[in-house]
Amino acid sequence: MALVPYEEGAGWGARQLHSPSATYRFASHTIRLKQDWRRLGVAAVVWDAAVVLCAYLEVGGIDLRDRSVIELGAGTGLLGIVATLLGKGFFCLFKAIYNCSAHVTITDRAAALEFLESNVQANLPSELRPRAVVKELTWGKDLGNFPPGAFDFILGADIVYLEETFAELLQTLEYLCSEQTVILLSCRIRYERDHKFLKMLRGRFSVYEVHYDSSKDVHIYKAQRGSRKDDF
């Protein structure tokens, strides 16, 4: 699950986390998500890192059409939903219409899947629902259920938190990556262990900070195998 630290408080942010729903506007669609802090905790609320990465995908003009995309630790599903909407694409050839939309795999642990699936189905138009698949993935354990190196993009928002999961997360990233795969991770740098993960990531991939949202204190990192620094 997308696990991040959280301290109870009486501020606006805390009220938003405990709200039963959250609404956003991306890709010309209004996205209404259920939240369920009481039942699923941090995995069932929208965190700023997901919102910032969604905006980066949209404003940055990253072309997801006809691409294979996987989200790790999806939580509410916001990022995977937006990736599916942004990846919408059709073309006409000899009077036939072909669907070249992105294939998006939206993953989390088993306990969150029913909740995640309900948000995904509620926020995608009917023609895009077959292009988004919700699937169980526990880092380092369910990898045989996924084709190795088959994804063009790997997305993760606020999934760097528990130090004991770092090795499994890196193992998962390496398994899912090809030489062409682009990894985009958004996060707040809260603790020294977050820097430790970035150091571990740089030991396996070429890593660059591509965006920083100062208003939300969220960083976006791009990682690829080898020494590549390609544009999208």
Structure report:
The chain is of the alpha/beta class and 232 residues long. The chain is 28% helix and 27% strand. It is built from 7 helices and 11 strands. It has helices spanning 12-18, 37-40, 48-59, 78-86, 113-123, 166-176, 192-202; strands at residues 21-26, 29-34, 68-72, 90-93, 96-99, 103-108, 132-136, 153-157, 182-187, 206-213, 218-224. It has a 7-stranded mixed β-sheet with strand order 7-6-3-8-9-11-10, with helices on both faces. It has a two-stranded antiparallel sheet with strand order 1-2. A hairpin with a 4-residue loop joins strand 10 (206-213) and strand 11. The longest helix has 12 residues, at 48-59. The chain is globular. The chain starts with 11 loop residues before the first helix and ends in an 8-residue tail after the last strand.
